[in-house]
Model the fold of this input.
Amino acid sequence: MTVDAQENAVPWKPRATPARILTAAADHIERVGLYQGDHLWQPGRMGNTAPCNLLHAWGRGVRAARPRWSERGEAWDVFQRALFDSLVVLSNEANGRPVSPARWRTLGLDEDAYRRTMLWCWTDTPGRTTAEAAALIRTAASLCRSDADHVTPGCPTLQNMV
Done:
């Protein structure tokens, strides 16, 4: 079989979907636990085994779905859409409803920064548990098309944005 035939034999399938990002995040937080407190930035104690907040768990999910550095083009485009959509769906779920653009515009933030801040602050609400965090992430993952290739932006909650 020629090299061209080998490349065409297996259709390219993106690794990055919002559901995959969020499922990996839920798996991570269930494994390491939820961390609450004033001193979240502890470089010597962070990583694969240290308890984390919701934003850090989402970041671990993003790293799990990131294409290989050697891949070019479409894989990265799909990844960028999945990254954004997973952040939107998770922050909407943490908020309890779609987040209005007026909220980040009023504060002079961009959407990405506002949504990441929401995830950080959600964690520090007194009484949050690891099980609650994992359930929130898994619920957000269930809102995304889990088995479909993520080639067009938009999960169900994006259609409800005010």
Summary: The chain has a mean pLDDT of 75. The CA atoms of residues 99 and 136 lie 16 Å apart. The chain is about 55% helix and 0% strand. The helical segments are 3-9, 18-32, 54-65, 74-95, 101-107, 111-123, 130-142.
